[in-house]
Amino acid sequence: MEQPLLSGEVVEEKWSGYQSVGRSGSFNLPAAASYISADDVRSASTFPSAPYPSLSFDDSAALVAPLDPLDQAIGYPGGFGEAYGRNNVNEIGRHVLDEVEIRQLLINHVGHRCCWGSRPARRWKICAIEDCNVYVGTLETFLEERETIREMEPYRGGKIDGIDKGPELGLWELDLRPEFPLLFVPHKETRSKIPHSEAIDKCSDCAGKGEIVCPTCNADREPGFYKENQMFKCPACYGRGLIAHQDGSDTICKNCSGKGVLPCATCTSRGLVKCQTCQGEGSVLKRSVAIVKWKTLLTRKVSAASSAASVPEEVFHKAKGVQLCNTQAYQCNPAFFADSYFLNKFSSDVIGDRSPVPPAARIICERHAISVVPVTRVTMAHRHRSFSFYIVGLSRDIYIKDYPKQFCWGLCCCFEWLNI
Fold first, then answer.
1. What are the residues whose beta carbons fall under 8 Å from the beta carbon of 241, sequence distance 6 or more?
2. pLDDT tens per residue, range 23-73
3. What is the per-residue pLDDT for 366?
4. Greatest extent of the chain over all pairs of C-alpha atoms, in Å
5. Nearest to 414 by CA among 117, 118, 116, 114
6. What angle (nearest 5°) sits at the alpha carbon of residue 390, between those of residues 324 and 122?
7. What sign does the dihedral 313-5-61-70 (CA atoms) show?
8. Mean pLDDT lowest for which of 3-17, 102-116, 336-350, 383-397?
9. What is the pTM of this model?
């Protein structure tokens, strides 16, 4: 279990003036927000004019994918500004590492590298330990995108669902509640036939005849005109009907049975072949199909001190940190921290970088979170040489770019391929 950000009376005093206080994963919404069930959210897709409501339902677990427990650490939406997060590790409830623990973490990390020597990790002196917390902001925009395509298949008779059964439904009038996924899934796609959109048409490729001109023996003919009984010279005997042998004798060509010519291999010299579009039926069944895609657009932003600027941002995105806020709404607004201009601006920057929404899509829900990732920069030295590494996140992952004792010789990829 993670420890509170501030303890005892300090918590009560510090957070009493905040707009909303709650565990991460809760939904910070106005007091006037009405109760909305999971079925209400799904049913919103039925009404094209009504946007999805703000999600303030108690049974949100049915719609929201579960979060990692570490991601739900401490969720006070305020108070970690420049006064609380920049350089003081104790303020985020993290155990302060001593030199023995730091060295052991590095030794364990080096031990998993087949070509790294352990002497620097064991023998070199730790000459500097610097805390440089990093702030990570995310905005997840969950979208539903719909588009219509026209499908066609040969019509072989039977009843159809046409306009005589009722008016064709609009694209956003389709009831897709059974297909609605968990909120913030990366991607889901489904296809759905639009009711009353079927129609029977004459095949345009064959003009309703079910056959088209043979493209082999009538390739040079004008559309609609063809010639029957066209024959081709036998390629085995070159039209002679006989096969010559080295002793001067001739035998009848078995390929053409001595005729010297062969019929068209595609249409047997009929001049016509079956239309592949309608499969010889002459008619096609057309319908409208809705392609519906749900996806999550992710906007991420990192604010790191200069001492941690050399670490790739992807390292911080993967690291476990302490959530300072986690809000969810139809469209998220910047978070408000009563005593931190820095975090207010950082949240505004994340919201301002929202990914553009495609014209054929609409926003269903957004989720905005700001976390602080504890980072410790450690510098080790020996004689006139030194190197630095970083201990990142609550899980204490090691990031090191230039370890001083590596014996790779370009063979690491070979060892990885051999599973050594």
1. 234, 252, 253, 256, 258, 259, 260
2. 233 333 333 333 334 444 344 444 443 334 334 433 444 455 554 433 443
3. 95
4. 116
5. 114
6. 140
7. positive
8. 3-17
9. 0.64
- pLDDT in the model for residue 8: 34
- 42 dihedral zone (left: phi>0; alpha: psi -120 to 50; beta): alpha
Is residue 57 within 8 A of residue 35, CB to CB? The reply is: yes
3-state secondary structure the chain: CCCCCCCCHHHHHHHCCCCCCCCCCCCCCCCCCCCCCHHHHHHHHHCCCCCCCCCCCCCHHHCECCCCHHHHCCCCCCCCCCCCCCCCHHHHCCCCCCHHHHHHHHHHHHHCCCCECCHHHHHCEEEEEEECCEEEEEEEEEEEEEEEEEEEEECCCCCCCCHHHCCCCCHHHCCCHHHCCCECCCEEEEEEECCCCCEEEECCCCCCCCEEECCCCCCCCCCCCCCCCCEEECCCCCCCCEEECCCCCEEECCCCCCCCEEECCCCCCCCEEECCCCCCCCEEEEEEEEEEEEEEEEEEEEECCHHHCCCCHHHHHHCCCEEEEEEEECCCCCCCCCCCHHHHHHHHHHHHCCCCCCCCEEEEEEEEEEEEECEEEEEEEECCEEEEEEEECCCCEEECCCCCCECCCCCHHHHHHCCC
d(C-alpha 323, C-alpha 69), whole Å: 11
Backbone angles phi, psi at 164, to 5 degrees: -70, -20
Long-range contacts of 35-44 (CB under 8 A, 24+ apart): 38/62, 38/63, 39/177, 41/180, 42/177, 42/180, 43/177
Distance from C-alpha of 415 to C-alpha of 420, rounded to nearest angstrom: 5
Instruction: Report the alpha-carbon distance of residue 314 to residue 232 in Å, rounded.
Output: 67
Both structure tokens of 69:
């427990």
∠ CA(132), CA(138), CA(141), 5° rounding? 175
Instruction: Give backbone dihedrals phi and psi of 188, rounded to 5 degrees, phi first.
Output: -150, 140
The token pair that represents 359 in the structure block: 């014209």
The answer to whether 321 and 394 have CB atoms below 8 angstroms apart is: yes
Predicted confidence (pLDDT) at residue 236 exceeds the cutoff of 90: no
Q: Are strands 361-373 and 397-399 parallel, antiparallel or unpaired?
A: unpaired
Q: For 245-282, give one letter per residue: b (16+ CB within 10 A) or e.
A: eeeeeeeebeebeeebebbbeebebbbbbebebbeebb
Say which amino acid occupies 227: K
